[in-house]
Amino acid sequence: MKLSKVLFDSFLFLLFFHLSNIKTSACNEESRHTAAVQSVKHAAAKPRVRRGSQGEGSKKDAGNLGYPRLIYSPTTGLPNVNQMQNDSSQSPTWGPKLKNSLYPLSENSLSAYGVLLLSLVVFAVGIVGNLSIMCIVWHSMSMKSAWDSILAGVALWDFLLLFFCLPVVVFQEITHRRLLGVLSCRIVPYMEVSSLGITTFSLCALGIDRFQSITSSQLSPRPVEQCQSILGKVSVIWIGSLTLALPEILLWQLNQERSPVSGLISDFCVMHPSPDQLPVLHSLVLTYKHARMWWFLGCYFCLPLLFTMTSLLVTLRIVGNTKNMKNSQCQRQLSWIVAGLAIVYGVCILPENITNILVAYTSLDLPENLLTLITQFFLFLKSAVTPVLLLCTSKPLGQAFLDCCCCCCDDEGKTSAASDDADNSTKLEPLHPPYSGNDAALQLGTPC
Fold first, then answer.
1. Are 222 and 151 within 8 A, CB to CB?
2. Cα–Cα–Cα angle for 168, 171, 173, nearest 5°?
3. Strand, coil or helix: what is 266?
4. Where in this chain does the record put each G-protein coupled receptors family 1 profile domain (predicted)?
């Protein structure tokens, strides 16, 4: 009995001790949960700091340490489009974004569409016209003269100018970026000035050719010459023009600036010689820069106009005293063609000289980018109008162009008929060469 009583008392003591431990752990757990809830409420009551931003203390520390200030997102919660473009333009993975002046449609985009439309028309007319002049002179046996070869040389350079320079200028106007970077910034002005030189010296050479043709004893107004003589005259024109335009390569530099609004980079070319050049070369380029305006006005504007007008007056004076009416009429027509080319060239180069004078001697706040674009488009317009003028005023060139067009149209209509009659014609008569020995010496106007 005593043993059972002792065991029962021990069991009651252990049970009481265990219940007291359970109650203590429950109270501790409840206190922990209450503290956690209070800490959560206290944290929620504090102002939350956005991710990627800094508090006042961190801002002060960053300012003291010289760290760059972070960019805050807008208060509206929407992403900042300008900042996204700025970050993508500076990213090493993604390339720099291009400005699209054609979209969205607004008042500023209308000028871009106008430039694009005008450039397409000038490009199409100039490419077709200059290619026609070159092909006609190349394939025509009756046009192997200095006159037609000089015109073909002008057409070749006008074709190169339109094909390579016009897309670069239009691309820069629309996107404000420069194709090929520094290379195009130097090559495009070089080709433009070379075009001025080739046209200038070609007009002078045509005036000399008119005077020699009038004073010579040959009856043909455009005598056929040897290839060596033609290549010599054309080489003098091209080598002289390309040599005089060499300072343009060392004069132009490419500058870039970032827009503070959109963060996009804009390219523009400036006339500023590089200081890394040799001292002698740098001084020569600076001298050319200061004399460039008067050089353009005297050599590329006044010289061809005065030379052409003088040769025209002398030619008309000599032709008026000749008795051969047919030859004098042809000589007079060719002289007026040269005068027409000189007038078109003078009108198209006049904005360049006016712009240079206004920028140099006036204090007007003129938009230089707009003036540069206008002068360049006038030069491209000259390259497109010159072959059209030649095809309209020169009878041999115009007739050869019409013959080629008619020949192409007739070939499309007669292809089926020629294929049907080919077998019958071979049975009726034997094959023979199209030209005999005497026929090979005939002068054909076109390859058709």
1. no
2. 110
3. strand
4. 129-390
> Could you tell me if 174 and 167 are in contact, meaning their C-beta atoms sit under 8 angstroms apart?
no
Residue 353 lies inside a defined structural domain of this protein: yes
* Contact (CB, 8 A) for 303 and 200: yes
Q: Are 335 and 315 in contact (CB under 8 A)?
A: yes
Q: Dig out the tokens for 319 from the structure.
A: 């032709």
Q: Is there a domain that residue 427 lies in?
A: no
pTM assigned to the model: 0.69
Per-residue pLDDT, 430: 39
DSSP type of residue 74:
P
Number of domains, the chain: 1
Cα–Cα dist 427/448, whole Å:
26
CA distance 179 to 387: 28
Look up residue 382 and give its amino acid: K
CB 142 within 8 A of CB 443: yes
Answer whether residue 229 is part of any domain.
yes
Residue 95 and residue 289: Cα distance in Å, rounded? 35
Alpha helices in 224-324 (DSSP H): 227-244, 247-251, 279-297, 303-320
Quote the domain boundaries for residue 301: 107-406
Q: Which residues contact 102 (CB under 8 A, 6 or more apart)?
A: 109, 112, 113, 116, 174
- Separation of alpha carbons 386 and 242, rounded Å: 20
Place of tokens 């002005």: 189
Instruction: Judge whether 50 lies within some domain.
Output: no
Q: pLDDT digit string (tens) for 292-304?
A: 999 999 999 999 9
Cα 203-205-211 angle, rounded to 5 deg: 105
* Domain at 374, CATH number: 1.20.1070.10
The single residue listed with the structure tokens 């040269």 is 338
